[in-house]
TrEMBL record:
This is Cytidylate kinase. It is found in: Cytoplasm. Its main location: cytoplasm. Its EC number is 2.7.4.25. Keywords: ATP-binding, Cytoplasm, Kinase, Nucleotide-binding, Transferase. It is an enzyme of class 2 (transferase). ATP binds at residues 15-23. NCBIfam families: cmk. Belongs to the cytidylate kinase family. Type 1 subfamily. CDD domains: CMPK. It holds the Pfam family Cytidylate_kin. It catalyses: dCMP + ATP = dCDP + ADP; CMP + ATP = CDP + ADP. It comes from Streptomyces lanatus. The gene is cmk. The keyword Cytoplasm applies.
Length: 228
């Protein structure tokens, strides 16, 4: 891994669920010696905390009132990304069906977004060699001055097939409907919705293998680095 005197590079990778953001971002960051931040994990972590503390997920005012309480810490090593809430490792619990079904409602609350956005900007600006940050609003809101913005897409069918393979035997149609529902909620919220930045490079991953997507993004990052 060669970092030399390279200037830090900030890469924003956004897109709907199951388009390959986490797999691609982690691999690109590892290959180029950059930090990695999974912002979805942060929204899942705060959702897990709300559920664990009996906060009514249907009540945005109740969520807003306690949004500042949990201490969320993200580890940004792409070889070992971590996430903790008030000192507890929540990497497993944040992936449950319950958290997945509630995360869109919690992440739509402006006070939650303001809190998490601040954490994301702090991590991005402190990454010594640069960082790959993946999510839904990174290129549009969190890091509008990112050196490179990528927007990954894929057909709902391809995304559902990938997820069902991951969940071993999950029904593809039910998975597809759940993905579509979550994307619709994330795209239609008022504050900082899932959206492609005007200056993002769109990469349709439907017919690409994961190594092909990684290679494509690594090439784009290297071009940006060379031009810095
Ligand atoms: N191009 C690809 N071809 C085949 N499978 C892929 C491809 N990209 C990612 N995958 C697989 O699809 C699944 C979902 O990928 P990943 O978790 O990276 O997506 P994501 O966009 O981060 O999803 P989410 O937003 O829901 O967290 C994983 O099992 C991953 O290995
Ligand atoms: N920048 C982000 C990242 C994530 N979210 C919300 C919306 C997603 O449905 C949820 C979980 O993300 P995932 O783990 O599936 O990538 O978190 C967001 O609003 N903004």
């Amino acid at each position: 891994m060669e970092n030399g005197a390279a200037k830090p590079v900030i890469v924003a990778i956004d897109g709907p669920s199951g388009t390959g953001k986490s797999s691609t971002s982690k691999a690109v960051a590892a290959q180029l010696g950059l930090s990695y931040l999974d912002t979805g994990a942060q929204y899942r972590a705060i959702t897990w905390w709300m559920v664990s503390n009996g906060i009514d997920i249907e009540d945005p005012t109740a969520i807003a009132a306690v949004a500042a309480k949990p201490e969320i810490i993200s580890g940004t090593d792409p070889a070992n990304p971590t996430i903790s809430v008030d000192g507890t490792d929540v990497a497993g619990p944040i992936r449950t069906q319950e958290v997945t079904s509630k995360v869109s409602a919690v992440s739509a609350v402006p006070e939650v977004r303001a809190r998490i956005t601040e954490l994301q900007r702090t991590l991005a600006t402190s990454a010594e060699y640069g960082i790959v940050v993946e999510g839904r609003d990174i290129g549009t809101t969190v890091l509008p001055d990112a050196d490179l913005k990528i927007f990954l897409t894929a057909s709902a069918e391809a995304r559902a097939a990938r997820r069902s393979g991951e969940l071993k035997g999950a029904d593809v149609n039910a998975t597809r409907e759940a993905l579509i529902k979550r994307d619709a909620a994330d795209s239609s919220r008022k504050t900082s919705p899932l959206a492609k930045a005007d200056d993002a490079v769109e990469v349709d991953t439907t017919a690409l293998t994961l190594p092909q997507v990684i290679e494509c993004v690594v090439t784009l990052v290297e071009e940006k680095r060379a031009a810095k």
